[in-house]
Amino acid sequence: MSNAPRNCRVGVDIGGTFTDIALDLDGVLHSTKVLTDYAAPERAILKGVASVAEMAGIALSEIDLLIHGTTLATNALIERRGARTAFVTTEGFRDTLEMRTENRFEQYDLNIALPPALIARADRFTVRERMNAAGKVLLALDDASVEAVVSAIAAGGYESVAIGFIHAYANGAHEAAVRDAILERLPHLSVSISSEVSPQMREFERFNTVCANAYVKPAIKSYLDRLVISLKDIGVRCPVFMIHSGGGIVSVESASEFPVRLVESGPAGGAIFAADIARRHGLDTVLSFDMGGTTAKICLIENQVPKTAKTFEVARTYRFRKGSGMPISIPVVEMVEIGAGGGSIASVDGMRQIRVGPHSAASEPGPACYQRGGKNPTVTDADLILGKLDPNNFAGGAIPLSAAASRQAMVDDIGTVIGLDPDAAAYGTCEMVDENMANAGRVHTVENGKNIADFTMITFGGAGPLHAARLCEKMGISTFLVPAGAGVGSAIGFLRAPFGYESVRSAVFNLSNFDFAEANRLVDAMQAEALGFVEGGLDRGAPVIERTLFMRYAGQGWDIPVPLDAKKFDTDSTRMLAAQFETEYERFFGRAIEGLDIEIVSWSVKASSPLPPVDRVAAVDEGSVVTPAKTRRLFEASQGAFLDAGIHERDGLKPGDVVKGPAIVVERETSTMLTAAFKAIVQSDGCLLVTRT
User: Fold this and answer.
1) Which domains does the chain have, with CATH numbers?
2) Band of the pLDDT at 2, cuts 50, 70, 90?
3) Which of 16, 155, 460, 498 is a plausible cystine mate for 609, CB 3.0–4.6 Å?
4) pTM of the model
């Protein structure tokens, strides 16, 4: 093994089915997939890192940096597998978690069932205190009630405590005092306070967020501690960083303290990967489509930047309806995520219709074809029956697949129920999952005021390229790109992510009596907070600072983002802010409203390391059509029949080569299926540019 200095970085993405590892050694990529180990997730990481290091021919000690993203926090919230947690709040607000807001996610359902609160009522406690919306003390913290709560927590055997007081976003002094009182008597407990986790207005969302942070904090901290130690034990002594939901990189210590920021970390890596490809190909209107083993994620990327938000939902309980899940108020890459992955289970509902997901076979036991104990039919089983997968070359041959087991599962759960043979049941399963994903894509683009046909799709994930062509047919998209390394796209995205942190706070300022000095103090404090998380990871250049205000007309119930320049506020700022808000308001809603006061309700300051420049991919001339060395029977959905499809090894294709559908382009971590309506042209960077013929 060479001892010469090298630049070696590793990205690790733990998914519901596979753990993806990508190693970048001086610009050369090595990757692998390992089945996720639910009992000890770090074991899959150690196995995968050792495997890619061996592929690259380097010692584990030569790895310079490891960046990790995980769905463990998400899974803990969805499956309610967290710590025994207590919630302490202001007297009179014990039931906020159940009362939620006045919004109904299904307006006409008389039997609507709201999702249960993360923390049961018996585990929620109150203290006498009160702040007003400006952060002034209305009722001093009552020491007797604090002492009673601390005693109750000590007697309850809790592992973690969440503290959320009314208007603590404006002044967190009471929350901090109660935390100090708890830790003075119970120093072993994990304590989270809302004024640090999510200092934003709207108590339901803020309370949920701090409860979620406390709920997953002990398990995530324990896991990260084990991971760092285990890596050192096998010889990996480089720094370990985490990707957070907003698409930036933070230290393991920060992630351990605020694990709720990891909830969408894996999908955020995928969006960064797609944005990087968009930059290289000069694409400004992109739909990122990431389909893995458990879920599918769709994200809009405009002007080569993923769309972001300051709140999102996890664990939606009612047909993925907005409002039926658990709101988390943290900065996040905005996307729609549905239970439609390779491991998603197909079944027949009461109306004798095929349904797919959200339940997944995951990695344990996995799809029926894995022969690891799974008996339910999944999307992967359907793909195998329809000829999309090679049973002898799945995951590079690491997992032999049994078509007989897939067919038997289809017969048992679908065929015997509604009278379909295995081929028809598999066809119905794939059509249903593709239609679900197409509907999600249509709704997401319409909600953002866009026409989905105007987008170019960038697809990745183990199952994304398998389903992209049919998805594009359904959505009316004419072009999609399959990048090199698509099977481990999120892990590669981690290697492209900047060090970054976004500070978000709520503080109401009316423009009619704008206090510019106080506004400057607020922004300076937020910038210092964001830089404190970022500067340790900067290896080149000055940090990039982005500032955003969330503004509305006084009396409105919601706000819109307004970009803010780097200037200090002064006496002329009122006019400037009003003009900027009205410009953005007109862009959102068509026209501004005269005569109403304008207010700022929330503030965002994001600091990040500068993105390195990328080389634009040169266009290639269309070459000759490649003749396949072999063929396989592949089901063509548009014709409802099996056709002979050419099989092409991706490593054997060169820039300019043309592959016409029906065909399958195979590689180690995924395969790209081309229906008869599409052709692929290999680009100079190895991407497949697939267009409708």
Assistant:
1) 8-77+222-262 (3.30.420.40), 83-216 (3.40.50), 500-608 (no CATH), 630-692 (no CATH)
2) very low
3) 498
4) 0.87
